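Suppose you are handed a protein chain with no further information: no name, no annotation, nothing but its sequence. What can you learn? This example shows the usual starting point.
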Amino acid sequence: MNLAAPDRLTVAITSRALFDLEDSHGVFERDGVRAYADFQRSREDLILKPGIAFGLVRKLAALNEGAPEEAPRSEVILLSRNSSDTGLRIFNSIEHYGLGIVRAVFTAGEPTDPYIEPFGAHLFLSANPESVRRALERGIAAATLLPSHDGDAPTQAPQHRQLRIAFDGDAVIFGDESQRIATEQGLDAFSRNEAELAHTPMSGGPFKGFLAALHRLQQAFPATDSPIRTALVTARSAPAHKRVILTLREWGVRLDEALFLGGRDKGPFVRAFGADIFFDDSRQNIDNARLHVAAGHVPHGVANE
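A reasonable first move is to predict its three-dimensional structure. Written in C-alpha cells, the prediction is:
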C-alpha cells in the first residue's frame, strides 16, 4: 500500500498533550524559565510518563506498519514551547517509546500554533486552550485535551488494535446553526427546523476536514479489516437523525457507527465504543466523557460564546 503525501493523515500535538509534563510545567509557572531549564536538563535521561494523548499517538504510529518508509500513512508532528536544548528529554522519551516522531518545532516559549498550517496538519491537539482557539480561527480542526478524572485513564489504551475516534455532531463535524436554534429558541423549534430541512445538507464544522482525511485513509484498507473505526455520538434522536444521515451521504463520508442518544450522558457510550479519543464542543459532555476515555474539548460554536 503506497499513499501519496496528500493522503497522509497528519496530526500536530504539543509535548504537554503527549507526555506528563505537569511537574516541569509547575516549575516553569512557579520559578521561571531558568529554573525550568535546570529542571529539564537534570532529568534529561529520565523517561517521561505518557500523557493524555499517548495512546492515540501510539495507534497512529501503528498505522504505518507495512507502509514504505518514504510514504507513511500517518504522521505525528511535535510542537513544543521548550527550546531545542530543554526539549532533548522529550525526544529521548519519544525514542524510548518508539513513537516514530521525526519532525518537531521547539519555540523557546513562543506560541507553537503558527506552525500547524505549514505542516499541513489535519488535526491539532494541545493542553493550551488559547492555542486551540487560534487554530480553530484559522480553520484547523483543534481540541484542548483535558486530564481524565481517573488518573490511570489517559495511559490505558482500550483493549483493541484499531484506532477508534468518536465525534459529536453539531458544532464539531457539522456547523452550529441547528444547535444555535435549540439554544436560543428551544427543542421544539429545533425539531421543526430539522424536519423542514431534512433534505438540506448541513454546513461543515471544524472537524469536517479531519473526518474526511480519516475516511480517505480508511478506504485504503479492506472494509472488513480496517485499522480505523469512527463513531458519531450525538444528543440528537429521531426524527432529527435523518438530516445527519443525508448530510454525510451528500459529503460522501462514512462513519462506522452512529449513536443517537436523545440527551443521554455520552461517557458510558464512548467507553462502550472503545474510543481512543472523543471530541465534543460541550464542556459538560467532555467532563462526563473523560471519566471513561481521553477527551478533547472543541471550543467552537454557540456553546462556547
